Amino acid sequence: METADYQRILEDVAHEVAGTVGRGRVADYIPALAAVDPESFGIALADVDGGVYGVGQWQQPFSVQSISKTFTLALALARGGESLWKRVGREPSGNPFNSLLQLELENGIPRNPFINAGALVVTDELLSLTGGDASGVLLDFLREESGNDTVDFDRVVAASEADHGHRNAALSHFMAGYGNLVNPVETVLEHYFRQCSVAMSCQDLALAATFLARHGVRRDGGRFLTRSGAKQINAVMLTCGTYDAAGEFAYRVGLPGKSGVGGGILVVIPQRCTLCVWGPGLDERGNSVVGMAAMDSFTTITGWSIF
Ligand code: GLU
Q1: 3, 103, 148, 221: which has the fewest C-beta neighbours closer than 10 Å?
Q2: Domain ranges of the chain
Q3: pLDDT per residue over 176-211, tens digit each?
């Protein structure tokens, strides 16, 4: 398929899922997220050669939430290497993203880096690797890779998360009790809430993630991750990236993906492109209803899954 067709494919996808826009429930456990228009919808595609295409509100910033976990994982692996895997597993959890249950049974070692407990460990690791500036290093990376200097934290969302962050605080203290957090719990939480609060558009996110489609090479041609490091992240996205619906996502879409409760889903097609879709209405497992439908439609139209 010619790259010139990307725009038309996105328009076909948007047309096909139009009836799904607005379905689902906007996340309200973080009150600042509940203010978003539930009818919002956008989709963007960034190809490995630098082309960007989009439909709908693809340039409107939204709260990236757990999509940030893809980038903190990449930064922790790029800077610290494989030792991270001593502190966090890489198996699907089959439990809700903020569950405490499994953590006790498994001695404070989270199942994977994409559930909240695992992401808190990754943030802790990144704090140690960056001399205490985990969220700053993340922000610099996101700005550089998206080419957008205005990408920033949303201080209202971060404060709202902190005010309602009892579960994340509980997970952190619990892991600290097992010796699996090195930095003070308050510091880890502060950086974690900041990273989740970053506001980016579908265009920004698709561009920022193209290193995953380029086997670890950044937009300026510099190597960020080894080829096998990029493969590892894509693999964990496929098996753990969409909460306890990763099996359903692999079945319907067949591509590495990472969702967030802000309603975004980031998807990688290795060697070809990245996609990001946004629609704030979530299904019962926390994934965007229209986002799932759009990615399903995209792979059905193009036949581009990894399978
Ligand atoms: N900041 C959210 C939380 O910690 C992220 C959840 C998500 O997007 O999965 O609850």
Answers
A1: 221
A2: 3-302
A3: 999 999 999 999 999 999 999 999 999 999 999 999
